[in-house]
Amino acid sequence: MRRFFSYLILTLLMIVFSYYGFKLTEEQNFGVAASTKAAAIFTVIFPIVIGLLLRLPELLLEMKKKKVRTYDWIKFSAVGVPALLISQMYYLSRVLPYEMAVANEYTSLPVIAGVVFGYVLLDSLTLSQKKKTVIR
Asked: From residue 133, how far is each of 1, 19, 129, 136 by CA, in Å?
């Protein structure tokens, strides 16, 4: 019963966060808050936080096991870093000297990549697979 309520609370938290986040994003698309720096930062951070919230329940269950944890740098560098770069491609195209073909405001690719980056950021925390040495 406790597990049910923890999932229910986390689901409600994700729904509320998503509702207000999408509401703010919709206001930005119609030009209400499009010119502020805070709106630009929110557009970058929002998908990453959604990815973190998607992975959080499983991480909390794994933390209850209290085992030795390591960080899977291979997974983070192979999946997380490219996802971070893709999620930032609209802003990188303004800074870098070349123009990216898919870097526009209306594509959903940066949003999906931001969610993947947030998920992989927490998913890279894994239990260590230490081999036990057998002494004969």
From this structure: 40, 52, 12, 10
3-state secondary structure 41-78: HHHHHHHHHHHHHHHHHHHHHHHCCCCCEEECHHHHHH
pLDDT of residue 70: 84
Euclidean distance between CA atoms 43 and 67, whole angstroms: 36
136/122 Cα distance (integer angstroms)? 39
Residue 130: CB atoms within 10 A of its CB come to 9
Q: Which two tokens stand for residue 83?
A: 């996802």
| pLDDT value of residue 6 | 78
CB crowding 5-38: b at 16 or more within 10 Å, else e: eeeeeeeeebeeeeeebeebbeebeeeeeeeeee
User: For residue 23, is pLDDT > 70?
Assistant: yes
For residues 112 and 99, the model is more confident at 112
Q: What is the mean pLDDT of residues 99-109?
A: 59
Q: What number of other Cβ atoms are within 10 A of residue 132's Cβ?
A: 4
Asked if 45 contacts 25 with a C-beta cutoff of 8 angstroms, the reply is: no
